[in-house]
Design brief:
About 40% of the residues lie in helices and about 20% in strands. By secondary structure, the chain is of the alpha/beta class. It binds adenosine-5'-diphosphate and magnesium ion (MG). Adenosine-5'-diphosphate binds next to helix 1, strand 8 and helix 9.
Length: about 280
């Protein structure tokens, strides 16, 4: 392990060194930009930094956190809690590196019975017991998307380097401000290798928010998803993993340590996956 960056002067540390910002809502204008991927990988990275971290799948209509964690068949989900049929305690599962996971159900019926207004209470209960709560929110402008925007301490906008993603993110940012939420910044996900700086600058110009960091386009993310295992666990040295860990360190006000260990020996299935998800 080699330390290559230090973020101990986080502006989010109070005088007592206790973190003030705890609940982050991760949202976007457009769907499919990487909200769930970021929520899961940042949550695990925070847990690896020994921060008590909960990740909540509040994208109750298009839930897929359970899928990428291999928790898609758990008995109680956020759907049952929001339908008043189960207690929040029963919907909390332990995920990789000890991160606590509250998955959402994937059935349409479960979605129809879930009352998004109950999310407020769920979030308050969770925030009392953890250091970090990361909320995977629905994209765009929807009834169930409004609560996570207004209740979180800070909102993170996920954008891809394309015009549609940025235009829609701008609407979400405006909605967030109307709802009284605060935008912590944007994460530019799936960035190409070239012109990254220019793209970050364009995001800042268009959205009027700071770009927290850039996550590269990395086939390891999709390959890991195919194994139902998050990228930071399955591919600890992948470029996207480095970005996830660096962002988590910034959020935690911790030192960022790059895992410079040698790549693990690749088995046949890994080589096959690499060929398929190139
Ligand atoms: P959302 O939750 O915003 O709908 P997801 O997290 O489900 O988006 O990601 C959408 C797709 O993009 C998934 O197939 C995921 O594996 C892929 N993806 C996300 N981030 C990256 C990345 N940095 N590099 C490559 N693929 C990515
Ligand atoms: Mg999602």
């Amino acid at each position: 392990m080699v330390t290559i960056g230090i973020y101990i002067n986080s502006p989010y540390l109070s005088d007592k060194g206790k973190l003030m910002i705890r609940a982050y809502t991760i949202t976007s204008g457009k769907g499919g930009v990487g909200k769930t991927t970021l929520t899961v990988n940042l949550g695990i990275s925070l847990a690896q930094l020994e921060r008590e971290t909960y990740i909540l799948d509040a994208d109750i209509g298009m839930a897929n956190m359970g899928l990428i964690l291999g928790m898609d068949d758990v008995p109680v989900t956020l759907h049952e809690v929001l339908a008043g049929k189960a207690d929040i305690e029963d919907s909390i599962y332990v995920g990789p590196s000890g991160v606590k996971v509250i998955p959402s159900g994937i059935s349409l019926q479960g979605f129809q019975q879930a009352d998004p207004d109950k999310l407020r209470d769920v979030m308050r209960k969770l925030v009392d017991r953890c250091e970090y709560l990361l909320i995977d929110a629905p994209s765009g402008i929807s009834k169930e998307g409004v609560v996570p925007l207004s209740v979180a301490d800070q909102v993170i906008l996920v954008v891809n380097p394309e015009l549609a993603s940025m235009a829609d993110a701008l609407k979400t940012k405006i909605l967030c401000e109307v709802m009284g939420g605060k935008v912590y910044g944007a994460i530019l996900n799936r960035a190409g290798a070239e012109h990254t700086e220019i793209r970050s600058q364009s995001v800042e110009d268009v959205l009027g928010v700071n770009v927290i960091d850039v996550v590269p386009e990395d086939a390891s993310v999709r390959r890991a998803a195919a194994y139902k295992s998050p990228c930071v666990i399955k591919y600890p040295q992948a470029p996207a993993t480095r970005a996830f860990r660096r962002i988590a360190a910034k959020m935690a006000g911790a030192e960022y340590e790059e895992d410079t260990g040698k790549a693990h020996d690749e088995g046949f299935v890994d080589r096959l996956a690499r060929a398929v998800f190139r």
